[in-house]
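[step 3/7] fold_predict: job queued, chain A
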Amino acid sequence: MHHHLDYPDPLPIYPFTTPVSGSVEVPGSKSITNRLLILAALSDQPVTLSGALFSDDSRLMVQCLGQLGIAVEINESKRTMRVQGTGGFLKSGRADLSVGLSGTTARFITALCATRNGGEFKVDGTPQMRRRPMKGLLDALIQQGCEVESGRGFLPVTLRPSGLRGGRIFLEASASSQLLSALLMVSPLAEEDLEIEVSGGAEKKPFVAMTQRLMYRFGQPPQVMEPLENGRVLLKVKAGKRYSLPHAVAVEPDASAASYFLTLPLVVGGSITVKGLHPEVLQGDFAYTEVLREAGLKVTSRPIGTRASLPLGQLPGLGVRKNFWAISDTFPTLSAITPLLKGSSFIEGIAHTRHQETDRVAAMEKELTKLGQQVDSGEDYLRVQPGLIVPSEVDPHGDHRMAMSLAILGCFNLYADGSPWMKIRNPACCAKTFPRFFEVLENLRNNRFK
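[step 4/7] structure written:
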C-alpha cells in the first residue's frame, strides 16, 4: 500500500525565511474521487476519472472494487482512473475487503456489498478504523434484509446481503455524514423507492449535499426532503433509474488539502495561489476561505485558482471565533496556527471529529499544550489562548490532517534564522490523502514554484 517517499521520523520542519510566493497544485479531492469511483461502478459504461486522487484512501477503494469484480485501470502519471462500470453488478460473491483507515471506503463499500442478492463479504480495517462508527449504516442495512455480524456496530463486519428492498428505513447518522452518503449512492439499486428517516442532522452536511449533487448530475431525480415532528427528516429517494456518467469526468482539487497552503501566508507572509480551486467547487470546505478572511488574509478567486495573501506588515492575524460544524475537516488547519494569532480563538461545532482518524479535539489540545499554549476544551469546542511557543516534537496521533496542520505552524521562523524548532513524528501518515505534502511544502520554501 505504501508508496512513500522516505522521510526521517521524526521529521524536522524547516521554517520559511522569506514570504511565500507562487502557486501550488494539490491532489484531487478525496471525497469526490471516492464517490465517483462508486458512481462509476454503478454506471453502465466505462468511465475515466481525470485529476483523480492517488493516495492510500483511493487505492483502498480501487482495490476493494477490484475484489468485487469491478476493474479499475489506473495511470498515475496521467492521474487517471478508468472504471469498468457494471451497472452495480458485483461479479464476486465472496470477498475479504480491507479498508485500512479509510472511512469513505469502509462506509461506501459496505453499502455497495449490500446491493448484491446473495454472497458473503467481510470488511475490516486498521485498529484505528475499528473504532470509527459504522453502526447507523449497519442497522439500516439490517432493516433492508441484510444479515450482519459485527462487534457492536464496529468493524470487522461480515455481510450476507439479499439486495436492497426499498421502503421505509431509519438511519441514525449523527456519528458521520458518510453513513448517509453511502446509503444514498446505492439507493437507486433498490427494488422500490427508499424513504430514509434520518436522525442526527447529517442531511444538512455539505458532504451530503455533495453526494446528492453528484447523483443529480449523473441522472438521478431530485430527492424530496420532508421535516418530521421529532426533529428528524424523511428523505425520499427514487429507485430504478440508472446512473449515466459520461466517458470522462474531471475531479476537482481537494479543498481540505488546499486549506494548509492557503493558511501559509498567515504564518510566513506573502501570497499563494492554489490552482484549479474556485467558488463553484462541490466541496463545502471551500468555505474555510471565510475563516482566513476573518483572520486577516485577503482571499480572491478566479477560474484559474484561489489566491490568499497577507497585506504588507500585517502579521500576526486576529484570533477567530467560529463554528466549524460544516467545515470540520479544516478545524485542525486553523487550530494549529492559533499560537500565532492576536488574542484567543474559540472553535466550536467539532464534537463529531472526536470519532475520526483520531479524537482530533483531544489530540489538538494535547499538542498545542505541549507547544506552550493555554488550551481548554469541551465535548464540542476548543479554546486557545496564545502564549510563547515552546519548541517541541509533536505527534500527529496517526492523523494526516494533524500532521499537515502542525507542519504549517512549523514554517514560522521562530528563531529568526531559519533553523527548525518543530519535529513531526510519523510524517508518513500524510499518505492517506496527500503523499507528497512535505515535498510540495519544501519546494515552496525553496521558491521552486513560480
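[step 5/7] annotate
Residues 17 and 416 are 7 Å apart (CA to CA).
The longest strand covers residues 154-160.
exit 0
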